[in-house]
Structures are given as C-alpha cells and as structure tokens.
C-alpha cells in the first residue's frame, strides 16, 4: 500500500479576499503564533478589490477548472489557499458554528486557551471548547467560521 | 499525530458513504481509519495519512457544490505517486494538470487533478530530489557574444546556454534562469526591470536579488563569467550560490586601454 505522506493543502472558496487574508493572517496567525501571506496571484490589492479575473482557464472540455483570483496564507505549517468565489451561494445560518465541509487545524492546549482570548477580542463567534467522543482522534475542539462562512475547527489531539 | 499548526483533518460531504469509501480506499488507496470516529450526527468515515492527518467523509442528504478552484492535495513519494496514478487512470476520473499545462510546475514536481464520485476536486503531488536543487544548464562553456553586444542596462537571454546576461553600470553577470524558490523558470520583464516567476510570483532584481513577500528565497544563481579577448564566456556547468550581500556585486569590466 502506498504511503500518503500528508494532506498538503485544501483550498477554501471565499467571497472577499481581503477579509479572508486578514482573518487567516491576523486572527488565526495570532492563535497559532505564526502566519504570512504567500502566493497572491500576481494581483494588486486594488485588482483584488475590483474582483478582476486574472485569467480563466479550462483544462479540457467541461472540466470547469477556473484559475480564479486567489491568495494563500500560511498559518503555522498549514498553507491555506483562498480562491475568490464570485457567485452568491447560500451560507449557513449565522448561529450555526459547526458543519461540513470543514477545515481543522491542530493546536496545543495553550493555543486553544489563547484562541478563546483572541476570538473574544476580535468579537468572532465560536463554539467550545467541546469534548469529543472517545473514538475521535481529536480530544477537544473549538468551532468557528471565517468571514465567508467556511467552517473552521481548532483541534487539540487526544495525545497532546 | 500532526504537529501544532498543521492540518488536523479535512471534512468533505458525500452523498453515498459506501460509494465514497470504496473510491478513497480502492481507487486512491488511502488508509482507512474507521467509521463514525467523529460524532457529526451523521454517518462518517475517516482515512489517515502518514502525518496522522485525517480525511473525514460525512454523508449528507445533499452535497453542496465546491467553489471554483477548490481542491484538496495529497503529497506522495514519486514511486507511490505513479502507482496511485495508474489506479486512478483505470477509474477514469483524471482531469489533467492545469498548472503544468501553463508551465507553472517546478523541475521535478509532478501533479494530477482528479474528481471523486461526488465531484470534489482532489490532487496528488510528488517532488523528486531534483526539486530541491537548482539545476545547471550543463552546456559547458558558452560564448555569449562580445562585450559590446551587451550595452549598459541590457538584459539578454542566451538561448544556447539558458542564462541571462545582465550588463549594468557596475559590471556584468550571467544568471541561471531557474527560480531559487521552487525551481521554475523566471522570465525577464523589461517594463519592470525585474525577473518574474509565474509559479509563485517571486520577483528578482536585475542582479538576481529576491524581492517580494515569500521569505528566505535566495538570490538567483549565477554562472562563472569571464572576459576572454572581449568575448563573454559563461561556464554553464557550475552554479555560483550568492548571499544577498554578494548578489549586489557584479563582474567588473576593465576600462578600455
């Protein structure tokens, strides 16, 4: 059997690149302790704000792959590519903090403590810490959403 | 167990748990960790990577479509990548490599996009050892031209040796065309007086000094350059790694007698 070494990255669709960059860089960056903005798709802030498409590319008939304007924030060791989604899609209700699909970052108990402070200070709603059932590899979680309502989880592993 | 600051898990929605589980287990070949490890209020199944990260599939009545460009990438060794690719080919779910088609893959980087039964875009990627070293053009000593062919302020691409000759007021330089970030090829943008790499948007000055937002990218590699009877001779078999300080210096041109 092959070894899948790791999940290298998982892309998030966002409806505002500037807000998304700020959320991942400033808020998650402060919780994890390290963040930087990488790989912005050659666009200036002005171009991102205007939602200008750098290019639209389709790889073969009907594949639908679009190189939308994007950015990428590295939080700790996690690369989080952010792709601009210019269509309006149904978001989960504001009061719902937990759902799918979801991206979860590994945190230490100390980072989880800090998260509560940081999220409160930025006035960002969250749920938790929630204790997970014994079968779950995650011991404790905080659930929240990014400014585009993507579900995010801060996960403290069971054996940390 | 993933390290703090690494991805812990990625959770995707699927319409049919059995069908999805079979795909991720048999076609992709991920290691199955178990069912309903998570309490999501819905049936779920989890797969684990070597790093201890989980891919969790949750069965929902209706799968929301992903936004444009959304995908999840798995890292493999080169050998395993090819074995996985062979299996995926059989299942007929391959999409191609759009970035690769644009020349936005570095030396030694191989990648493939594919779709799972629920239409989620996934990707497998592998890096061979040459991904981590800047290759030389390996064309031996190349005569780029006469010194007069390179006026002050010019940047000239020498196709034969795959390098740039940069002539400024303080000297001359031969630069390797390979980006020192991830080994893609840089292009010279005369309108901005800089080198640009389309893979990760790295930029370099005409002397090859890195500018931009990605930290710790060293200057472009140089090739040894000598002036022999007015000819510019470049040794394309040997890279010269330069510190950011050293990158400010060029090969001086002696004043005409």
Can I get a quick summary?
Chain A is 21% helix and 33% strand.
Shape of chain A: globular
Strand order of the largest sheet of chain B: 1-4-3-2
Mean pLDDT of chain B: 92
Tell me the structural class of chain B.
Answer: mainly beta
Report the principal-axis shape of chain B.
elongated
Q: Figure out the total of helices of chain A.
A: 3
Terminal residue distance of chain B: 69 Å
Number of strands of chain B: 19
Q: Tell me the major beta sheet of chain B.
A: 4 strands, mixed
Order of helices and strands of chain A: EEHEHEEEHEEE
* Rg of chain B (CA only): 24 Å
Write out key terms for the chains shown.
heterodimer, A: 160 residues, alpha/beta, four-stranded mixed sheet, 3 helices, B: 257 residues
Descriptive account of the structure:
The complex is a heterodimer of chains A (160) and B (257). By secondary structure, chain A is of the alpha/beta class. Helix content of chain A is 21%, strand content 33%. Chain A has 3 helices and 9 strands, in the order ββαβαβββαβββ. The longest helix of chain A has 16 residues, at 17-32. Chain B has 257 residues and is mainly beta. Chain B has 3 helices and 19 strands. Chain B has helices at 17-28, 78-91, 98-101, and strands at 7-14, 31-35, 44-48, 54-59, 72-76, 94-96, 109-115, 121-127, 141-146, 154-158, 163-168, 171-176, 186-189, 194-197, 203-204, 210-211, 222-223, 225-228, 231-235. In chain B, a hairpin with a 5-residue loop joins β7 (109-115) and β8 (121-127). The longest helix of chain B is centred in the first third of the chain and has 14 residues, at 78-91. At the A-B interface, β1, β3, β5, β6 and β9 of A face β1, β2, β4, β5 and α2 of B.
